[in-house]
Design goal:
two-stranded antiparallel sheet, globular, alpha/beta, 8-stranded parallel β-barrel, 14 helices, 10 strands, binds 6-deoxy-beta-L-fructofuranose, binds manganese (II) ion
Amino acid sequence: MTTDRAQVKAALRRQRIETPSWAYGNSGTRFKVFAQQGVPRTPQEKIDDAAQVHRFTGVAPTVAVHIPWDKVDDYAALAEHARERGVTIGAVNSNVFQDDDYMLGSVTNPDPKVRAKALKHLLECVDIMDATGSRDLKLWFSDGTNYPGQDDIRARQDRLAEALAAVYERLGENQRFLLEYKLFEPAFYTTDLPDWGTSYAHCLKLGPKAQVVVDTGHHAPGTNIEFIVAFLLREGKLGGFDFNSRFYADDDLMVGAADPFQLFRIMHEVIQGGGYTDDVAFMLDQCHNIEPKIPGQIRSVMNVQEATAKALLVDVEALREAQQNRDVLGANAVFMDAYNTDVRPLLAELREEMGLDPDPMAAYARSGYFEKIRDERKDGQAAGWGA
Ligand code: LRH
Ligand code: MN
């Protein structure tokens, strides 16, 4: 018996997808950053654009910020700016990967002065969370080495553990940190947090406020990401996702664009593993290097909705039965039936019931918002990664 339509719509209606402030700014590769018209110039304008994504999808009510890309004098005022536009500030992302001092590492750097500087920034990010009311601190470290012998792998883990313990100590009652891992880049020999196991081990040692975040672009090709999701959920250590997709490396393309079937398999494990709750942060972490940014975010949110709707339609009873009967093809067929279901009419219906246009992309294009920001934001410095 598939989950009935009303139940599926009720579940989709309470979906929460967080968009990243940096997706609205200019971004690119080491070869070129192609500037686009209408790009925001300030954290406030990034939030204005994020509010458009929520306006047309109804399921993107929070915006992740990145420090110092979104540095302001008054973070409480920034949070108020967001509230006035119907969104709130979500995860605070630290940045210890762009300062000259961090060339040989931030919290793992052999130089204790550099480590202290990095830790100071991480603790400042928790101060910002106090001001914005954010629950999550997202920690990603570019730390690593490029040549064998460059540094002591074990000693760097000791330094990392020391910094994480200090941050953990500082976290408030309802705060937590999400520890991100990445196989490689910018380091090309060792990365100090290269995989889910290393992140999980550090989080396990620290306690319940330390959770693992799965960036879907940060694995070796061929990695079964839904296995990692199922495992971390079973351990109560899945704190969230940085959703995007890739054909090769950390391409940061629109989630579901490169591999919609993988996104479906991931959402199936999320739902079956009890992770379709507010305890798991569903964040986008993408760069729209050549495509328009706000429509890119709207399309990405719709891709997550479609994968989630299909996963909610899995006939779980029939699947369990086929699995118990060791009916390999039968079980796979039940799974594929859900995946091959066209859920777009159901989502259009849901949007109408939510008082939204059934076609968010068309509704945004008709809204004239792009023309407005294109004309308003001619002057000044467009925001970017500042890399
Ligand atoms: C690193 C990463 C991390 C962010 C950055 C924008 O590749 O995924 O989550 O800080 O992208
Ligand atoms: Mn990420």
